[in-house]
User: Fold this.
Amino acid sequence: MSVTERLTAVRDTLPQGVELVAVSKYHPVDELMEAYRAGQRIFGENIVQELRLKQPQMPDDVQWHFLGHLQTNKVKYIAPFVSLIHSIDSLHLLSEVNRQALRCGRVIDCLLQLHVAQEETKFGFTFSECLQMLSEGEWRSMEGVRLCGVMCMASNTDDESRIRQDFRSVNDFFVQLKTDYFADAPHFSIRSYGMSHDYPLAISEGSNMVRIGTGIFGPRPLTIEL
Ligand SMILES: *Cc1c(COP(=O)(O)O)cnc(C)c1O
Assistant:
């Protein structure tokens, strides 16, 4: 199947109101262009250097989402154009995004990445770390960033009930944050969870933004030619 066919097939399964992020990391620009011509506008990348090289090669109306672990010293490279950062996992990172956004005269939309998976290696705030950060309130004075919701990756397992539980706990947590901190903020509305193998489950547990790579572009090449 071609990128266009896979993209169309994925889109046909998405209910209204669920945004699709085409995760294009490791894939060459001509494949991204095929998805673009088929109407896709939101692309997700997780390596700063790769994103910096691809961005000028794609049309200006692409919305670039950053998904992976983001080092503070690299924020400056993506701040001029990134449209949503999914992976805020510390106050330190949020304040650097704020600083760089203000330098560019922008407000950058951000999601709080939550750690729910069983694996040690996944990044993100625990629920209690996230609550502590929000209750301390420093984020409120950051005019270059706008918190728009939450993101997570579920446990890497075949155990469907475990995955469902991860998504459900993040959705419950989102509702709690919405009530306690963002009741007056209509933009705080994004629940980014669900990838190629688990997105139908994610949607059934409240996701409204799915991040799909393999399901659109096929298996990732081991190396990228940029
Ligand atoms: C790579 C990646 C995805 C997409 O994964 P697929 O299994 O290829 O759909 C989604 N989210 C994040 C954070 C990723 O790094």
In short: The CA atoms of residues 46 and 68 lie 4 Å apart. Residues 23, 25, 46, 67-68, 153, 195-196, 211-215 surround pyridoxal-5'-phosphate (CB under 6 Å). Residues 3-217 form a domain with the TIM Barrel fold (CATH 3.20.20.10). The longest helix spans residues 160-181.
